[in-house]
Structures are given as structure tokens and as C-alpha cells.
Amino acid sequence: MALLLSGKRILLGISGGIAAYKSADLIRRLKERGAEVRVIQTDAACEFITPLTLQALSGHPVANSLLDPAAEAAMGHIELAKWADLLLIAPASADLIARLAHGLANDLLSTCVLATDAPVAVAPAMNQQMYKNIATKHNIDTLKTRNFYIWGPAAGEQACGDVGMGRMLEPLQLVDLVLEHFAPKVLPLEGVSLVITAGPTREPIDPVRYISNHSSGKMGFALAEAAVQLGAQVTLIAGPVQLATPAGVKRIDVVTADQMYQVALEQAISAHIFIGCAAVADYKVAQVATQKLKKTSDDSTSLTLVKNPDIIAAVAALTSQRPFTVGFAAETQDVANYARQKLVKKKLDLICANDVSLSNQGFNSEQNALTVFWADGEQQFGLQAKTELAQQLLLLINERYLHEKSH
Ligand code: CTP
């Protein structure tokens, strides 16, 4: 049976502190679980535990100097930084944390931290007063904002006799955090399949002219991208838009409302959730001319328009294999009222309403604000990037979907 850390490459950085003696045990525990471990020690760390001990335990020479020709020839510092799946610094002294917070590269370990694109986990270990110092606190906060993991410290008796926060976590606690870091994550929308319509539709008048609208498709595409990131299987039915297909999304391009209707109904019956984000043209030209229409001497002309099928209402009316159905409402006034009316009329489970009278949101904008309504509730999402909004909205949709499913 494969060990939990099989194939994982952990670059262990050890800085100067009494807790450095625990690093020997940490290496053993990581290796027992299948990890490959290479070690970098700072000069100060070499005063607390010998490179020879760590070399024997890790099975590799310990790296210490940036300027060591033999070590650079074996595995250069950039290579070492690239090799790592995780850079774990344990113990991380107050001095090292300060240097990392300032982005210094004045020894091998700090250089590798700058040169790696692997996640970096820091296990602070220092005297409780040093840990409490506002400078240290500030430095740790800085690392957090840069997405470093800060593991520990723990409270307890310290080597110097003080009692308080600052002890490095025990090797087994650090191993648990490493295991958790590498454990496959269960995403909130895993196992959920979604069909999303997006963009405008284009209704031909003749071979060169059409009726359409300003929908950019950005909201629907952002929803598709966010849904994949949250673990869902996504089919995106797109009207004519100039947008790249988000990674992992199955895209079906359509042009007219009739085409979108046909594809949407085919796809909806195998989906858990259907989201109608498209700005479907309400009408199409009754008789599409086969040849280009010519100007006449009349000052005016007219087209006869007939209603397009209502795609989302048809999906919501499915009697078997009906997905949880979510619509959008673009309103310029009395938003809540009109949205709730559409929710009922189209028999939707949820409707997301936005006020398109505001110039900085909705159609063609990068930002959007929404109010979501369902039979016995509502929730507001403030103005924000469509990408962020998409993620929050999907979590709410999934919550409501699971709620409905369980009743
Ligand atoms: N919709 C659809 N098929 C249509 C028209 C709209 O699926 N033929 C969907 C949209 O994707 C959206 C919702 O219905 O989810 C929008 O409702 P709709 O009544 O079309 O909104 P408006 O066009 O704004 O309606 P009205 O003009 O009545 O305000």
C-alpha cells in the first residue's frame, strides 16, 4: 500500500534555535510516511544540530551555503527550490521570520524561499517575549498575507525557563499538518453537474443582419469557471461571445434562441442544476429573408417579430429529470417585485436579480451586484468582481439545491 506521503518532496529548512534538535525526529517521521526529505540548515542551525546527523537521517547531503561550489554542482539552490512540493521551515526563528518578511535572500534558506513556487510552511519557535513582540507579530502577519502557512507555535515551558507561547509544534503535530496539506481536498461542488447558458442570442433578419443585445457573457463564463474550481462538472451553452473557454468546461456554441433551447433541453435532463444566465432574445424575426434585404423608397419599414421559446421556463417545467433551476433577471426598476414575479411565473427555484440601470454593473461590466430570491428567502451580494461574485453565488445555489433535495 502506498504511504500517505509517497512521492512528496519536502524541503526542510532548519534555522537556529534549540528546537532544531527536534528536526531529527521530524525527518524520521516524514520519511516513515514515504516523503523524500532534503535539508537546508542556516549557519546558526548547524550550532544546534550537526549536518552529519541530518544527512544520515535524510539520506542526502545537507545544504547550507549559497557559495559552496561542490553543493551547487550537485543540486544548485534554484534546482533545490524547484524540486520541493513543500518547503517546511521548522524551527523558524524570529530572525529568519523577519528576514522572510522583508524578502531577503542573504543565505541559502531565505534564497530558496524566494526562489520556490511551492507552498511554504513556517513553524515558529522562539522565546515567548520575542514571539509577543509587535515586530514579530507584524512579520508573521506579513507572511500570512503572502499565503505562507503558519503552523504553531504552541504554549508551554520553554528551554530558557519562561512559560508562554513560542514552543515549536511537536514533530508529530507538524507531520499531521503536512498530511492535511497533501490530503486530497473534497470540493463543495464535487459530484454536482451544472448546465449554464451564457451570452446573448443572435436572431437573423437576413444573411447579413441580426437582432441581438449587449450581453457580454462574462457572468455566465465566470460562473462556469468558478463552478469547475469548486469541483462541479460544467456544460456551458454559449451564445456568440468573444470569451475564452474556462479550463475544464465543456462548451457548446449556439447562435439563435431556438438552437439554445434545443441544446439546453438536451443537456438539462442530465444535470443537477441549470443556470439560465443567457440574455435570450425575447423575439425573433417571423420570416428570415434568404437574400439580403434591399432599401426601398419608403421612409420606414417594419419587421414582424414572433416570440422565442422561453428556455428556462421549459427546463423548469420538465416533469421528470428536472434540474434545480436558477434564472437571472435584469431589471431597471422595482427589482425585487419583478424578480419575484419571474420566480413564480417561470416556476424557478431561485432567481438572481440585478439592477442594470446602474452604469457600473451588469451588462458588459467586470463587476456586478445581485439580490437572490427564492420562495421563502433572499440574500444580497454587494458590488464586486464577477469572478468573486460567481463563487459566492454558486455556494448559495448549491446550499439551496441540497436543501431542496433533502425535502
Ligand atoms: N430566459 C430564457 N429564455 C428566454 C428568455 C429568458 O431562458 N426566451 C431566461 C434568461 O436566461 C434569464 C431569465 O429567463 O434567466 C430572464 O427572464 P426574462 O423574463 O426573459 O427577463 P426579461 O427579458 O428581462 O423579461 P422582461 O422583459 O419581461 O422583463
From TrEMBL:
Region of interest: Phosphopantothenoylcysteine decarboxylase: 1-193
TM annotation in the entry: none
GO cellular component, one term: phosphopantothenoylcysteine decarboxylase complex
Ranges for region Phosphopantothenate--cysteine ligase: 194-407
Swiss-Prot/TrEMBL GO biological process terms: coenzyme A biosynthetic process; pantothenate catabolic process
Pfam families: DFP, Flavoprotein
Cofactor: Mg(2+); FMN
Pathway noted in the entry: Cofactor biosynthesis; coenzyme A biosynthesis; CoA from (R)-pantothenate: step 2/5; Cofactor biosynthesis; coenzyme A biosynthesis; CoA from (R)-pantothenate: step 3/5
Family membership: In the C-terminal section; belongs to the PPC synthetase family.
Protein name per its UniProtKB record: Coenzyme A biosynthesis bifunctional protein CoaBC
Gene source species: Rheinheimera mesophila
Classification of source organism: Bacteria, Pseudomonadati, Pseudomonadota, Gammaproteobacteria, Chromatiales
Gene name of the record: coaBC
